[in-house]
Each structure stands twice: as structure tokens, then as C-alpha cells.
Amino acid sequence: MAKIFVRERGNVHEGDGQPRFAVVGVHEADIKFFKTHLRKGELDAIAQAVGAELVTLPRGQGEHVGDEGGGGRQHGRRRRGSGGGGGNAASA
User: Fold this and answer.
1) Domain ranges, residue 19
2) Beta-strand (E) ranges in the chain?
3) Which residues make Cβ contacts (< 8 Å) with residue 43, sequence separation at least 6?
4) 21 in the Ramachandran plot: left (φ > 0), alpha (ψ -120 to 50) or beta?
């Protein structure tokens, strides 16, 4: 039987209005997820449609639980050089 492995996201809580689960991996199923953060109802519907079992992974335990970091996505652009200008000569 195919399995979809998910975990609860650490920075989202029930009632926040954001998807609470993150897809970690898939076993024995040819499924491609275009969104990795999903709601429980969405995961249940996908699992039922493809005949897969939903496996919720336990939260981590140890000294690094809840630590910041992880190399997530960086937001914004980094500027090169000094002067802080937009780099567009036509706007001068």
C-alpha cells in the first residue's frame, strides 16, 4: 500500500488559517505535490483518491527542538555595491 508521510508544521497552530501539515515524502505512489503545505482534509482526500495511507511523523525530540534556523527561504533581494540606488540610469 502507498504511504504519504506528513508532519505538523511547527510555526502554525490550529485556527491560524494556514495549512498545518507539510508533506515529507511518498512511498510506492506516483504522486507529485505542487503545494507542500496542506490542510488535513486535503491530505485525507488525496490519500483516499490514490488509495494511500496517511502517516503522521512524530515531532522531533532532543536538544535542538524548537531552535531557530534550518536554512529556510530568504526573502527580499540583496543589493550589490554601495549607494543604494535602484541601478536604473533612466530613473535619475
Assistant:
1) 1-59
2) 2-8, 21-27, 37-38, 52-56
3) 4, 6, 21, 23, 54
4) beta
Residue with cell 543589493: 79
Q: What is the pTM of this model?
A: 0.61
What's the average model confidence in pLDDT over 24-28?
91
Q: How many domains does the chain have?
A: 1
SS (H, E, C) 11-48: CCCCCCCCCCEEEEEEECCCCCCCCCEECHHHHHHHHH
In this structure, is residue 46 part of a structural domain? yes
Measured CA to CA, the distance from residue 85 to residue 23 in angstroms comes to 41
